TrEMBL record:
The keyword Transmembrane does not apply. TPR repeats lie at residues 218-251, 252-285, 286-319, 320-353, 354-387, 388-421, 422-455, 456-489, 490-523. PROSITE patterns: TPR. This is Uncharacterized protein. Pfam families: TPR_1, TPR_16, TPR_19, TPR_8. Keywords: Repeat, TPR repeat. InterPro entries: TPR-like_helical_dom_sf, TPR_rpt, Ycf3/AcsC/BcsC/TPR_MFPF.
Amino acid sequence: MGKCLDFKNCGFDNRDGARFCTHCGIPTKGTLLKGRYAIESLLDKDRGTVTFQATDQQTQQPVTIRALIPKDTSTQEQENFLQDAELAVSLSTHVSDPGSIRVIDYGQDGPVVFMAKTALAQPQQPASTLSRLVNRISSDFFPQTPPAGNMGGDEEEATQLRIAVPAAAAVSPQPIQSTPASALRDWLTEGNLAYEHGAYDQALSAYEMATRQDAGLVEAWSGKGATLLHVGQPDEALVAYDQAIALNPNDPELWTSRASVLHDLQRYDEEMYCYDQALTFEPDYVYAWSGRGMALAEQGYAEEALVAFDRALMLDPQRSTIWQAMGDTLYSLQRYDEALIAIDRAFALDDSQASLWDTKGNILRRLKQPEKALALHEHATAIEPDNATTWFDKANDLRDLRNYREALSDYDQALALDPTLAGAWYNRGNVLAALRIFEQALDSYDRALQYDDGLISAWYNKGSLLHELKRHQEALAAFDRALSLDVHYIAAWNNKGLSLFALGRLDEALAALDQATSFAPEEPDAWYNKAVVLEKLGRKQEAVTCQDWARSLDQQAKDKQGR
């Protein structure tokens, strides 16, 4: 994940590949500003500005990047900043004293306006680059004493990872072996740094020592909870968050973090209670609203989820993840036009995520625009070539465009990445059936049912192919499985009647077709088939009546189309 470099005040877990933090807007680690300045670490933050350590890729020299925080500054403030930066660059051309700071560049990239500064070469190197970096962090980024009132865990994106990032508010640690025995170790900061760098075992040990050193240190309990959840120990994480909340019960961040743990434990009612608690203490806490919306959407309460997403976006309309979650929810409700609007809003904020391209492609396919959908899914597979779902969706576009051979290739690619993808096996079977490669199609349906034996349409299509191959007894078994899952499956009753007719079981065939015409009296096919069976049984007048009714239904359908 692209964790926000400001893990003290933000710590948001962005999706892989995100260039800017979705929450606060600052660049993530590794981002190339203007394709030149590679962001490495956060050095300082002060009143709407952040300062980064970076490397100039053109000269391979270290530089300092000073930027405005997008969510904390207005458009006018950004314009003023760029004007000041332009003047600073002009003045810096006249500076040549060794050690002087020069502004060498400025500009805007995405939501960020910035200037690049560097020091001219010194006559002597006082220390290594690493030493200067560590000293800068320890003095500026981690104050000696936590600020008053900052006792909770950092904010999280509940709709994404549902984990809280531990706050960092202490002295930057020196390596363990160099710490004087007489010094009081700052275990909290060591835990925070270890967590930030992915050393979770070390982080847990440090947080444990911090809580032993001070059992009332809320941030240590919160950090411990976040780390335990990250390493797959949600039960232990819940204990840690419970301790943090016992110490600071009015912190909405802690309640939202606890909700994330309960979501992982599938204790959804308790999860919702935590969001309600968070919103009781801070009604405008955007993370609780977004987390609540995601939880409701996953539990099938789509309309209620949309209300929560609306509230979250009223509070912070610059959150692409919430716009995407809203788009996904509208898509599930088949409100495709509205879903497209929401996804486009997410795109305007961050178009780097494969999932956005994929979702928009799916919406366009549902809107009967498979050509446009295909272009989007091609881009999604280029961004994430190892994502089975995007290959599956691209194959669906090709299927709708009747490019069956190409679709087959992409279904195979999806299944090479995830052989348990039942939908891909099912659609692969449909494409093979369209190509009249029936035996392989049957094998694909069987593989789909191996991973999801409740896939009704796979049972039905399997039965239809078996009937086509005159394997009527096997077809009958498949239709019965489909009907055991949905007794109102009209097409299955109709085709079951055909298989029974082919087996010479006329009375049973008539009973099956009676079911079809009873459930769907306006469908002409079942009436035509029923007429054939009745005639075979010698009930000619009833057969004529059924045939006349079927013709009448056909004519009504034609008349409607002609209007």
